[in-house]
Amino acid sequence: MTHDGPATERLDKLLGQVSEDHSRARFQMLISQGHVNVDGTSIVDASFKVKPGSVVCVVLPEAEDPKPQAENIALNIVHEDDQIVVVDKPAGLVVHPGPGNWTGTLVNALIAHCGNSLSGIGGVKRPGIVHRLDKETSGLLVVAKTDKAHRALSEQFSAHGRDGRLSRQYLAIVWREPQPRRGVIDTLIARSTANRIKMAVVKSGGRRAITHYETVRPLPAGSSDPVASLVRCQLETGRTHQIRVHLAHIGHPLLGDRVYGSSHTASANKLNDAARESLANLSRQALHAETLGFEHPGSGDPMSFRSALPDDMRELMDKI
Known about the structure:
Elements: E1 9-10, H1 11-18, H2 24-32, E2 36-38, E3 41-42, E4 49-50, E5 56-58, E6 77-80, E7 84-89, H3 106-114, E8 138-144, H4 147-159, E9 167-175, E10 182-191, E11 199-202, E12 207-219, E13 228-235, H5 242-249, H6 265-268, H7 273-282, E14 287-295, E15 302-306, H8 311-319
Parallel strand pairs: 8-14
Antiparallel strand pairs: 1-4, 2-3, 2-5, 6-7, 7-8, 9-13, 9-14, 10-11, 10-12, 12-13, 14-15
Helix pairs in contact: 1-2, 7-8
């Protein structure tokens, strides 16, 4: 802006008079932080006198993300010691804060539970977080309480079990029955060019993703033409939405997956009324992190945890 008044004015007063969006106090802070210059010179004194005809420039800094606050959110803790916490996360709980989810996350709950003991390596928004689960995926997740534990666990997750230390298995309810009933899906995965919220299997330019799967049982049990199946998946890599993308890629998306399985209306029409109602009540993709095994970052002892299939997925199976 150009000071086009007839008299010399204080810098903070001048800015406060011409702006409808910011107060004089706000401009005083911006001036003290070096975000204001007059005629090309940075000014840090709010009382600086601006002469008529001078050009004043204000560079507004980008708003910082709010620091997560402690919130009293119930957690299902299956193991805790002075270095780690293992949590059985319910579906619907976001792991860490982000746009649209600055509160009500697992991190907010962990801050309340652990105080200041969480590892800071993940940054302000992700204290203690070593790996994550999608909001609507339930199951086991390990959190680091010290930086040393965070580094050790991150190393194991980077190897994705290839060195025998880490093991992650998921249970999924998918449409129809995969053929073969057991196999390995090995592709490249990248963000979809058609829809930026989706990931996609690509021929080039993506990151390698490997999922091992096996059919646990067809649904209904014993059916020669099952409408769905319970499938166990083991990850050899950890790409965003990997299981959901891979099972959809081979033609067997997860029940309830509105992002990758919305086209399977024909399969949904084969459900009985009770199963269709149960699926509508599921309100999420039918995916559960069933087992988690890793080497304790302190003692080196092997640790293994198992989480029972949650009630909503079990009810859906029973109704089918």
